[in-house]
């Protein structure tokens, strides 16, 4: 605006100093310099070009629908929406099955089975039981395993029975290694503190207690 005031002055029109601020303000409300005009023009031209591209794209899109029944378009759109929904559902189901299998394997780490085939059979039955996975845990799994142990005990190892058999074998071997049948007296046997070992000794020397 100062340049405009100077231009007016060159034509003999001089603005008093105390009025120049008001004149600049008034001129700025109604006039723009060349840079401002160019900037505004560039913005308008950019918006014009953008709308032109949009209009051309819309026109081409509309042309692609020439001769097509709107009802068919709607039907095809619904078909693709259903395909997308089915694909997402299938993907989520696969992820759930993977997480369920991982959680089941981890939960069965401490369960002893009579064979690998028995383990696979039990795992298959558990998956078919419809239990739900929540926060990485299978709800109701422990109760179901206890029910399976009652209905199909042969698939599992009876740990208490296994331990008793191991103890019996160990104590029988232990006694047999140190004493041959008939070499112990009844008093010797009764002095054995360990109940399992004492029972094994009695079994080997049963004639002393008849």
**Biggest pleated-sheet summary:** 2 strands, antiparallel
Secondary-structure element order, N to C: HHHHHEEHHHH
As a whole number of angstroms, the C-alpha radius of gyration is 47 Å
User: What's the tally of helices?
Assistant: 9
In the predicted model, the low-confidence regions spanning at least 5 consecutive residues are: none
Q: How many DSSP E strands?
A: 2
Secondary-structure class: mainly alpha
What is the spatial order of strands in the main beta sheet?
Answer: 1-2
Domains (count): 3
Helix coverage percent: over 70%
Tell me the overall shape.
Answer: elongated
**What's the pLDDT, averaged over the residues?**
77
What separation lies between the terminal Cα atoms? 132 Å
**How big a fraction of the residues is strand?**
under 5%
Assembly type of the shown chains?
A: single chain
Notable traits:
single chain, two-stranded antiparallel sheet, mainly alpha, 210 residues, 3 domains
What is shown here, in short?
The chain has three domains: about 1-60, no CATH class; about 75-155, no CATH class; about 160-210, no CATH class. Helices cover about 70% and strands about 0% of the residues. It has nine helices and two strands; from the N terminus they run H-H-H-H-H-E-E-H-H-H-H.
Summarize the structure in words:
The chain is mostly helical and 210 residues long. It has three domains: 2-61, no CATH class; 74-155, no CATH class; 159-209, no CATH class. The chain is built from nine helices and two strands. The chain has a two-stranded antiparallel ribbon with strand order 1-2. The protein starts with a helix and ends in a 6-residue tail after the last helix. The model has no long low-confidence stretch (mean pLDDT 77).
